[in-house]
From TrEMBL:
Transmembrane segments: 45-66, 87-110, 122-146, 167-188, 194-213, 266-283, 303-323, 344-372, 392-420, 432-450
Protein name in the entry: Uncharacterized protein
Species the sequence originates in: Haloarcula taiwanensis
Keywords noted in UniProt: Membrane, Transmembrane, Transmembrane helix
Domain of life according to the entry: Archaea
Signal sequence segment: none
Length: 459
């Protein structure tokens, strides 16, 4: 590896550390929950440097585990979960998914307009994107059964056109970025009619794609939401193999070969990691301070958000590709950068899991009572809705979840390296650049979580 490349990695990590060395740590919350994160008394530079050091130290500890048989036993451990109720549970899940979609349309269009009492708003953001997503990586992927669009597509005829292989999963990458951009810049969490309209538009696009290419190909390649839940489900302790449901250690399935197959799927993993960060980044005071002079100079405010989304994604993807090239040089392998990129992308899902949990756990707990009330009385509009007041120490849970996600990612990448490279020293050296990238991602996530939440500026 050249000294110039070493300096590039060092400057990336050190530059982020410099950016993080201001402010105080605070917990993170959601917009419906009213923001209001409580500050911790720990200086930001201290806990960020501690988090980065924890990631580095965990790599050193993992590097001492060189017994391939031991590593394989950990990742292959599992227990079959037998049961005769799979068919009944699948039918019940499909009915629940269809009922939830119907509730979003009916209550979204004709229910109360107050976002804090409207079932469509609470069901989508609190019940689905926060609650159901957390159960996906904490328990198992139930969205594969609940997905109402997949259920509806199964009843429709199909033209069975061949899905173009050259397109691959790039529509899912673009779709994920567009969905997050729409979520950020539009008042989807405040206007039930708008939310129901966007869901209806998504349904039209999804069912049209399934109609043309068939449900199997469409949901396997092009649908971004299905792919998000699929990757999150690979982190969960309950998964499915050729023999049925299986209990496994959390995160270990991310080391499975060919889980990510192609540059399009690598890009989707990076996009998944980036959008969880971007969603919090745009509510920080730093984003407000950076964009205020630009808006004052005449830059359209609505242009800033998609530009930042695209530039940030390109930056995250560029840093990862740089790490891949450095890894190939340091490990002195005949394997191509494309092979390394595919093999070491899945561990990054664990980082996305940790940040999603940090971002949405408090949000879900605060608003879960409001969702429960709305489920029992979907057309009521009470003047007071119940919420939960989280204790001041709760912000530490969010910070810890980010660290845990990165620690799991390090171990999974370590196992993948030993599966990929024949020499032990070669496997360890291949991880040096990826550890630098994970420290970069760790400090970015922790810094975003640490910032006080402000309203989206200029919108």
């Amino acid at each position: 590896m050249t000294s110039g490349r070493r300096r590039t990695v060092a400057l990336v990590v050190c530059g982020l550390g410099w950016l993080a060395a201001t402010g105080t740590a605070s917990a993170h919350g959601g917009s419906l929950a009213g923001g209001g994160r409580e500050s911790l008394t720990i200086p930001t530079w201290l806990f960020l440097s501690t988090g980065g050091a924890a990631v580095g130290a965990s790599f050193l500890l993992a590097s001492f585990v060189t017994d391939r048989a031991f590593i394989e036993r950990i990742h292959d451990w599992g227990r079959p979960l037998s049961g005769n109720f799979e068919g009944i549970l699948r039918l019940a899940g499909q009915l629940i998914g269809l009922a939830g979609l119907a509730a979003v349309f009916v209550v979204g269009f004709i229910g109360p307009t107050n976002a804090r009492t409207n079932l469509a708003i609470l069901l989508v953001w609190v019940g689905w994107w926060a609650g159901l997503t957390m159960t996906t990586y904490l328990v198992g992927n139930s969205w594969a059964t609940l997905n109402p669009f997949k259920t509806l597509a199964g009843f429709l005829p199909t033209l069975d056109r061949s899905y173009p292989a050259r397109v691959g999963s790039w529509p899912a990458v673009g779709g994920l970025l567009v969905l997050v951009w729409v979520e950020v810049v539009s008042p989807l969490a405040d206007q039930p009619r708008l939310l129901a309209s966007v869901v209806a538009g998504y349904a039209v696009v999804t069912l049209a794609g399934a109609l043309v290419f068939g449900p199997d190909d469409w949901f396997a390649h092009a649908d971004p939401v299905e792919r998000v839940f699929r990757y999150y489900g690979r982190f969960a302790p309950i998964g499915r193999d050729e023999d049925g449901l299986r209990l496994r250690l959390p995160g270990m399935d991310l080391s499975t070969p060919r889980l990510v197959d192609g540059p399009d799927e690598v890009a989707f993993v990076i996009a998944l990691l980036w959008v969880t960060t971007y969603d919090g980044l745009v509510t920080t005071p730093v984003w407000r301070d950076l964009t205020t002079p630009l808006v004052a100079a005449g830059v359209p405010p609505h242009l800033l958000y998609p530009v930042a989304l695209g530039v940030g994604f390109a930056g995250f993807l560029g840093v990862y590709r740089l790490a891949v090239r450095l890894s190939r040089d340091m490990s002195d392998t005949y394997l191509t950068p494309a092979v390394l990129a595919r093999r070491f992308a899945p561990p990054l899902v664990a980082i996305a899991v940790g940040y999603h949990f940090a971002h949405y756990l408090g949000y879900f707990l605060v608003l879960a009572p409001s969702l429960a009330v709305a489920l029992t009385s979907p057309f009521a509009n009470p003047a007071v809705v119940p919420t939960v007041d989280l204790p001041a120490w709760f912000g530490a849970v969010a910070l810890a979840s980010v660290i845990v996600g990165h620690l799991v990612a390090i171990w999974v990448a370590h196992a993948a390296a030993y599966d990929l490279f024949p020499a032990r020293l070669q496997a360890i050296r291949s991880q040096y650049p990826f550890i630098a990238v994970m420290v970069f991602y760790t400090m970015t996530s922790l810094w975003v979580v640490s910032q006080p939440e402000v309203a989206l500026p200029h919108l």
